[in-house]
Write a structure and sequence with these properties.
This protein has 278 residues and is of the alpha/beta class. It has one domain: Nucleoside phosphorylase domain (Rossmann fold). Helices cover 30% and strands 24% of the residues. The protein has a five-stranded mixed barrel with strand order 5-8-7-6-9. Helix 1 packs across helix 2, helix 2 crosses helix 5 and helix 3 packs across helix 6. It starts with a helix and ends in a 9-residue tail after the last helix. The mean pLDDT is 92.
Length: 278
Amino acid sequence: MIKALEETTEYLQERGFDKPEIGIILGTGLGKLVDKLEVISEVSYNHIPSFPTATVEFHRGKLIFGKLDGKKVVVMQGRFHIYEGYSFWDVTYPVRVMKRLGIKKLLISNAAGAINPEFNKGEIMVIDDHINLQGGSPLAFRGVEHLGTRFTDMSAPYDQESIRLLEEIAKENNITLRKGVYASVVGPQLETRAEYRYLKIIGADAVGMSTVPEVIVANHLNIPIAAVSVLTDEGNPDDLKPVDIDDIIKTASEAEPDMIVLFRELIKRIKLKTPADA
């Protein structure tokens, strides 16, 4: 386990992945942020030792290192999901690798369905809290204590300073930014009317099939996280319309420019601790 992480990290370091400061995980339909990068090195997932390989056709499967707005970043262009048949270890393996490479912050994007009736298709929601409905934990394995504290505190899983900055940036740029609770389910099937009613009752504002395992592991590794959801459809159980994956991708793509503004401005304003500050 530790040997695999060491081999992966060394492989990437040999290919120029030199002390990235910020890790970025890009979700469905949200891959164009890499067009803004000054790319230094990129590697396909299937070339990286012990790395999973993306199986979803609209996830490209590259790890990219470069500079964005003055900071060194490592970007996952394509992520992994439990519904692809991966284990929680596989899904969160890249977060552990990025930590070993040196990241001090993690930014995550995803596509999600709106549950809160006040939220609309095409808007963006910053995640303030989450509900794990994926049926397991990425920390539930023998030997986890060798990688971090087993009983990880999750009282505030998302970095409140980053949330404040995102709200400030959204206001400055006339971007509608909601704030709410993200429920993570296994998928890949979408929700039934009864499931949408249940999710609303338990306090979810949006639902998706990713993000929470990575957030749990980031907290395990003491990495501050900011995460945003592009709301690609509306889950009103009293007027539920069939959802087409192509429409989800189209909606995410249309909202992507605003997401890029939020991430780029956040990266500019993030203050990273140096070893002397720790």
